[in-house]
Write a structure and sequence with these properties.
It is built from 25 helices and 27 strands. By secondary structure, it is of the alpha+beta class. The strands form five sheets. Strands 11, 12, 13, 14, 15, 16, 17 and 18 form an eight-stranded mixed sheet that branches. It has a six-stranded antiparallel sheet with strand order 19-20-21-22-24-23, with helices on both faces. The protein has a five-stranded antiparallel sheet with strand order 2-1-5-4-3, sandwiched between helices. The longest helix is centred in the N-terminal third of the chain and has 66 residues.
């Protein structure tokens, strides 16, 4: 299957090929789309330009038309404003006017005066610039006109402009003469407020008129005349004669434009074809004085001509686009090779790392995403190197790691104690060699010893020694004799071993009391409890005298239990032993059960309370509060004992710390310690030993913590002068990471030292003992408890040693001391006494770490020395800043 999958991957396209093909395709699509979109936009732009041109032409034409009417009206007003001229025209008009009923002879009679009026009109026409002028009498008949001198007497009263003037005294509109068009106005001629006639003046619509509109708008213009019953005729235009004929044909043939021309409506921009080309036009009607159409102004623009300005752009764009598409694969190939070169190096490094080769250096000079990826991968390789070296180092150390001491109730210091000793001998194992296999015998012995341990510890007894099938336990405190006798009764009541037991195989027991010396004794790597004194020797003698199923008591024990024995109805007789000369008192298991069963419940309550003040009843095999099953002793110190236990509620292994009795008399300390534990429980970090619970069981304060099977940093430092650089760097980073998590929730450790850093077999370090390994210094904010802080002077900051208020920077100083020891193998300050060390911490500067290890990287040396600054303000502001600088280093 693996080969098949590998073959499938090889047959597939590589990442570089896929990127090359995709990028080439994207470039081609992008360029092609850009060309197509640009072509489309050019078409729209050219059309928009044409539309804008014809719209502007229509607007210009409207303005031009109004301007011409205004200009004509002004000229006419100037013409008729001369009273002498008006009087002359009135007089000449009166003389020239034919009498009613006169024929042509009458009209000819006034020819001389008529000629003078025509000459006067032409003179004014030449001076004022209008194209024609007509003088009418009050009834609308021609007196004289410049364009047709012989038309005197013609009745023009039905022409729209004349009719408008007669009706409203003046008017304006387009004047049509055949196919010719004029802008014309009519104004009254008055003499002393008497109407003597009308003056009509006009400007001819010519090609110049069309050119003026074209110069402003840019569109071609055509003035179209449509005589009644005739065909449209182009009277003035900027088009060539061929285009003009084509436009006339289009107006005649196309219903839309022709209909608009005849109806006198405005036709908005409309596409039409003229001589095989696409055009766009706007038609505006030319209206006479009555508002009826006599023609139109047509503004047209050639779409082909507008597009011609963009043809070069289209051609250039097309050439560039084709060139880009052709060159895209080459650029894409070069880009892919350049971009994927560092990725290929990363792939090679990743494949090597997958095989366990982490000793590679990745170039990280780029600032882009690939550069950041390379930098992250380089940091990952460095982290893997550190982890590999740390695991190898811890594995090597763990080979010689001792097992947890199976000591029983190890005390912190030697003591002379008044105790009652119980000895139990399992007689059935005297002939174990002849019964069953060796493993079967040992398994049965383990079960019996476990049962005995459970019985004794349930009566608050302390297992002292186990030698073969003989066990010695110690009872102390009020009611010790009754508790010991109750344990004996329970032990003798159930036969040892499995299957029916002969009476000769029943256990034997002995009870003695007196002063003994108790305390820890170590040899090699083992830590055991020693118990010596005369009672120990007496116990051995009594066990020699006891028969199976019998309990022998010394005279001292008998005196202690006399009252209770008499209450049960027993008066024991003294007897002399065979082996020992000391007086003996014997009880059977039934008698012991009866003596202890009279007031068992009350006795249990009293004895539990009495035994709760010591650690005497806490030993492997004990069950604390029906919850913690004590498995082993992990260590002991001045504060108490740490046990390995199984938490039945959590179904997990825990480290159970039981404090010494004398440290818990001050309730203020207990409450403050509880407050710190609450903070410590908030810390959830892989590099912090978890604190689970704090409370009391049967009056004994306890603290349950995460159980870690590993070695402390102190053990590691004791095995070598200094740690390897990669292992030390990883451990330093983990210490800062765990401490940073504690500071984040407001917990100041204040006791950073190698003993408080434990390493798992995987090389992961955990910081432990938050506020537990020392009495609390501050009782509440602003108050300091009298006394001193318990701690190791070699690792405390100057402000702690001087009794000043300590903050998170005190932990940073302690970290600096630990770093110094990790990388150099020595402490920065040493002395013959603790006082010498304290003075050096407060007053002296540490030697440079390079004086002990010449190869130390200068950045690391700078980090350590900054942590060890006397003034807290000169140290790192936070553990996060310290960790940031450490992460800048790599193995």
């Amino acid at each position: 299957m693996t080969d098949t999958k590998t073959g499938s991957r090889r047959l597939g396209l590589s990442l570089g090929t896929r990127i090359f093909l995709v990028s080439s395709l994207l470039i081609a699509l992008s360029v092609g789309s850009a060309v197509a979109i640009t072509f489309f936009l050019i078409q729209r732009i050219s059309r928009s330009a044409a539309v804008e041109s014809v719209r502007r032409s229509s607007a210009v034409q409207d303005t031009f038309e109004k301007q011409r009417y205004g200009q004509l009206e002004l000229l006419a007003r100037l013409f008729v404003s001369d009273p002498y001229l008006t009087a002359y025209i009135a007089e000449a008009a009166g003389d020239a006017a034919p009498a009613p009923g006169a024929g042509p002879a009458g009209a000819a009679a006034g020819g001389a005066d008529l000629a003078s009026i025509v000459d006067l009109l032409k003179e004014r026409q030449s001076d004022l610039g209008f194209d024609f002028a007509i003088v009418l009498d009050p009834r609308g008949r021609v007196i004289a006109r410049t364009d047709r001198p012989t038309s005197a007497g013609q009745d023009l009263s039905q022409r729209p402009l004349v009719a408008k003037a007669v009706e409203d005294t003046q008017g304006s509109g387009v004047w049509q003469e055949g196919n010719d068009l004029f802008y014309a106005v009519a104004v009254p001629l008055q003499k002393e407020f008497n109407l003597v006639g009308y003056l009509v003046t006009g400007f001819a619509i010519t090609d110049d008129s069309a050119k003026q509109v074209n110069q402003v708008s840019g569109a071609d213009v055509a003035f179209v005349s449509e005589p009644p019953g005739g065909q449209p005729s182009i009277v003035a235009t900027t088009l060539s004669p061929e285009k003009a004929r084509g436009l006339a044909a289009a107006l005649a043939s196309q219903e839309g434009m022709g209909g608009a021309l005849r109806s006198g409506k405005v036709m908005p921009e409309t596409d039409f074809t003229m001589d095989g080309e696409s055009w766009i036009g706007v038609l505006s009607p030319l209206l006479d004085a009555a508002g009826k159409p006599v023609g139109a102004t047509v503004a047209v623009a050639s779409l082909a001509r507008e597009l011609a300005a963009y043809r070069r752009i289209q051609a250039a764009l097309l050439i560039v686009g084709l060139a880009a598409i052709l060159l895209a694969p080459f650029f894409s190939y070069a880009l892919v090779r350049r971009t994927l070169a560092p990725v290929r190096r990363l792939v090679t490094a990743a494949e090597a790392a997958r095989q366990g080769d982490y000793d590679q250096k990745i170039a990280t000079g780029r600032d882009d995403e690939v550069g950041r990826l390379a930098q992250s991968f380089d940091e990952l390789l460095a982290d893997l190197r550190e982890k590999r070296d740390m695991e190898a180092y811890v594995t090597e150390l763990s080979r010689n790691l001792p097992e947890p001491a199976q000591a029983r109730g190890v005390l912190a210091s030697p003591q002379v104690r008044e105790a009652l000793l119980l000895g139990v001998e399992l007689r059935s194992y005297a002939r174990a060699a002849s019964e069953g296999g060796p493993q079967e015998v040992l398994d049965r012995l383990a079960r019996d010893l476990k049962r005995l341990t459970s019985v004794i510890t349930s009566r608050r007894g302390q297992i002292e020694t186990i030698s073969g099938h003989r066990m010695v336990a110690r009872f102390e405190g009020d009611g010790r004799g009754l508790r010991a006798l109750a344990a004996v009764a329970q032990i003798l009541d159930v036969p040892s071993g499995s299957g029916p037991a002969e009476e000769a195989d029943a256990p034997a027991a002995a009870l003695v009391s007196g002063r003994v010396v108790a305390g820890p004794v170590s040899w090699g790597e083992q830590l055991e409890r020693a118990l010596v004194g005369l009672p120990v020797q007496q116990l051995d003698g009594l066990l020699r005298e006891a028969t199976s199923g019998e309990v022998l008591m010394s005279r001292e024990v008998h005196e202690e239990l006399r009252e209770r024995l008499e209450q049960a109805g027993y008066q024991l007789a003294q007897r002399r032993g065979i082996v020992t000369p000391m007086p003996l008192y014997a009880l059977s298991s039934r008698m012991a059960a009866r003596v202890t069963g009279l007031h068992d419940a009350g006795m249990e309550t009293a004895t539990l309370q009495a035994g709760a003040q010591t650690l005497s009843g806490v030993a492997p095999g004990a069950l604390m509060g029906q919850r913690f099953e004590i498995l082993a002793v992990l260590g002991a110190g001045g504060m108490g004992v740490v046990y390995k236990a199984r938490d039945r509620e959590l179904d997990d292994l825990v480290a159970l710390k039981m404090m010494k009795r004398e440290l818990w008399g001050d309730r203020t300390q207990i409450e403050r310690l509880k407050s710190e534990i609450k903070l410590a429980r908030k810390i959830t970090h892989p590099n912090v030993l978890r604190t689970y619970d704090f409370g009391e069981i049967d009056g004994i304060p306890y603290l349950s913590m995460e159980y870690v099977r590993g070695v402390t940093l102190r053990y590691m430092l004791d095995q070598t002068d200094r740690l390897p650089f990669s292992a030390g760097l990883r451990l330093s980073k983990q210490l800062c990471a765990g401490l940073g998590a504690a500071h984040a929730v407001g917990v100041i450790h204040r006791d950073i030292k190698p003993e408080n850093l434990i390493l798992e077999p995987t090389g992961n370090a955990k910081l432990m003992d938050f506020g537990i390994a020392r009495p609390v210094h501050r009782v509440e904010p602003g108050q300091t408890q009298a006394g001193f802080i318990v701690g190791t002077p070699q690792y405390l900051s100057p402000e702690q040693l001087q009794g000043k208020e300590a903050d998170t920077r005190a932990d940073i100083y302690s970290c600096g001391v630990v770093f110094y020891e990790i990388f150099t193998g020595v402490l920065p300050f040493t002395g013959a006494t603790a006082v010498d060390v304290i003075v050096k911490h407060v007053r002296e500067e540490p030697k440079a770490p390079s004086s002990h290890w010449r190869e130390i990287p200068p950045p690391l040396e700078g980090i350590i020395l900054r942590c060890l600054k006397k003034n807290p303000d000169e140290r790192y502001r936070s553990v996060e800043d310290l960790l940031h600088d450490l992460e800048g280093l790599s193995a």
